[in-house]
Amino acid sequence: MVPWHGSPLPQANQRDFETEKRLRRDLKRTKALLADAQIMLDHLKNNAPSKREIAQLKNQVGIQTPQKPQPLREMGCPRALAGR
Predict the structure, then answer these.
(1) Other CB atoms closer than 10 Å to residue 80's CB: what's the count?
(2) 3-state SS assignment for residue 17
(3) Cα angle vertex 37, ends 35, 39, to 5°?
(4) pLDDT tens digits for range 9-57
(5) d(C-alpha 42, C-alpha 25), whole Å
(6) Is 81 within 8 Å of 74 (Cβ atoms)?
């Protein structure tokens, strides 16, 4: 292959080198962020209390879980009964 003696090629090579350098740095940073996120998800998954544990703790403290609201008609609300 004949060497290029014009000026655009060295500039293009320099731009390609800088672009590759930036992309490698970005990839390294992205991989590190992904690894950190996976560690945090594993930590949350392994240390999160179960629904049963939460219910037991609420019972110990005396907090009642809210029940499903009943329709106003079933509760005997005069306004709801008047609409019948």
Answers:
(1) 13
(2) helix
(3) 70
(4) 667 788 899 999 999 999 999 999 999 999 999 999 888 888 888 888 8
(5) 26
(6) no
Taking the model in full, what pTM does it have?
A: 0.47
Q: What is the pLDDT of residue 60?
A: 85
Paired tokens of 81: 């009964």
How far apart, in whole angstroms, are the C-alpha atoms of residue 40 and residue 48? Answer: 12
The pair of structure tokens assigned to 1 is 């292959």
Is the torsion defined by CA of 49, 46, 41, 29 positive or negative? positive
For residues 73 and 81, the answer to whether their CB atoms sit within 8 Å is yes
